[in-house]
């Protein structure tokens, strides 16, 4: 049985998708709120690599992220990040645009979209949002 990673075209295709996603995040003014969420992290190069490693394992391929970090717990990974409903929707919209940029479509991609939608909404939290000015 083919993994979800195989069904979307393998690691090379996933790498192209992750690249398109973060290229959009870094260049599309509408995606700026997502980019700001990464300002307190390890930088975008690290984030790009971590996303590729995570999604590989998430889609049934080699679990690079687990090998490097010992887990694949999305909530733990994002525990320090204030994520609002609007952030989740913007992340999904930006990811959808990256899928379109890569010409990725079909049943496997629709299943991926549905899975990512559930994951994105699971991460919405009420952490203090350091992006918002305080009085």
TrEMBL record:
What the entry lists under InterPro entries is as follows: GlbO/GLB3-like (IPR044203), Globin-like_sf (IPR009050), Globin/Proto (IPR012292), Hemoglobin_trunc (IPR001486)
Keyword Transcription appears in the UniProt entry: no
The domain of life is: Bacteria
List the keywords (alphabetical): Heme, Iron, Metal-binding, Plasmid, Transport
Asked whether the UniProt record includes Heme among its keywords, one would answer yes
Signal sequence span per UniProt? none
One Pfam family assigned to this protein is Bac_globin
Q: Tell me the protein family, please.
A: Belongs to the truncated hemoglobin family. Group II subfamily.
- What is the name of the protein in this document? Cyanoglobin
- Species for this entry: Ponticoccus alexandrii
């Amino acid at each position: 049985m083919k993994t979800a990673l195989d069904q979307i075209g393998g690691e090379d295709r996933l790498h192209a998708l992750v690249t398109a996603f973060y290229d959009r995040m870094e260049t599309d003014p509408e995606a700026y709120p997502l980019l700001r969420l990464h300002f307190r992290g390890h930088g975008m190069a690290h984030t790009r690599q971590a996303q590729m490693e995570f999604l590989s394992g998430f889609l049934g391929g080699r679990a690079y992220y687990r090998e490097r970090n010992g887990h694949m717990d999305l909530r733990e990974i994002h525990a320090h990040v204030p994520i609002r409903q609007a952030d989740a929707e913007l992340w999904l919209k930006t990811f959808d645009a990256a899928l379109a940029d890569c010409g990725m479509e079909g049943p496997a991609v629709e299943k991926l979209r549905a899975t990512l939608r559930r994951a994105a909404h699971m991460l919405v939290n009420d952490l203090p949002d350091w992006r918002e000015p305080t009085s």
